[in-house]
Design a protein that fits this description.
It comes from Gossypium laxum. InterPro entries: Myb/SANT-like_dom. The protein is built from 5 helices and 2 strands. The chain has 138 residues and is mainly alpha-helical. A two-stranded antiparallel ribbon has the order 1-2. It folds into 2 domains: 81 residues, no CATH class; 28 residues, no CATH class.
Amino acid sequence: MLEKVLPHPMLKAKPNLESRIKTLKRDWAIIYDMLSGKDNSDFGWDEHGQVVVTIDAMWNSYISSHKAAGQFRHHNFSYYDQLTSIYAKDRAIEKYAQTTTDIVKEIDVEDIATANNLEEGNNYHECENDVSLDEMDV
């Protein structure tokens, strides 16, 4: 794979490899989002041609809001399957994905619940037996 991507051995390897990996990951993410994104059920993957397929109207609609995806309308991406096995496990499944706003709201709700419990006198950290640190098995 590297011979195809970097055919010139005189290139400084590390910066070029890092740049190429970043580009491949970005391109993979564009295709992955097309194939697995919300409301994108009309997109498919042609294993033989290694291209994203859908009707022209869907392409036009998608490209109007996702300019970077336009490059894959007529070009293949032969590393999609290999990169999916590497990167897909790090991507949140849409129904479980959280935005920062969702996370902040969740933390606020937990903080309010904790404050309410403490105000009501419910000390949920209380245990039946008071044990000193010396008596604990650590």
